Predict the 3D structure of the following.
Amino acid sequence: MENLPVRSNPFEGRYLFHFHTVATDGELSLIDYFEFASRTGLDALVLLEHIRKNPTYDVPRFIGEAKQLSSNKHVPVFIGFEARLLPGEGLDIADDHIRSADVIGIAEHAFPNDPKVLKNTFFDTVTQYTARFPLQTFVWAHPGLWFRKRGLDPNSEVAFSAMLQHAISSGVFIEKNMRYNLVSESVVARVPTHLLVDGTDIHKHRDLQMWTSVQ
């Protein structure tokens, strides 16, 4: 397998970050993304596939396929997984799968309806996981989605503000999520530039076309 240039920061140059494949709930395959990246001259693909502690797909095989395609298509790839917060338990991902990844996305999917528990779990998870896994890059995926889905404006929520500040102080990247139009410009203004990352959250062919149209 050809050795591609080593990059310490996944989010340099023109990258595509946060997209899903047929391994979970996406319409596109890994090869679809690599062919797109090769065709459009992207500098890197940064995966962020859904995962659970008991995954529905073969994770080592998924990683191996991504790395082989990276070599074949001459497109650098960073392995990433999107793991949901579990109340009082950290992230829904096995430690071995964290170690095999470059990027870990922290998501609020399906979290119980309790902002205090959400905030406390987020604080504990960020503190513990960034210390235990210093080689991985952590990203808060679609920040504030939990609040948005409950009809709340994240900008007006004390819990969200505290979570944002804790993420920033812990060196967690903050995703500007295209799919949900998160985060707001007022939040962007609070985040150091080097901790902001553009995320697409692509699931369907039309999502990729939409991203292409705004580039």
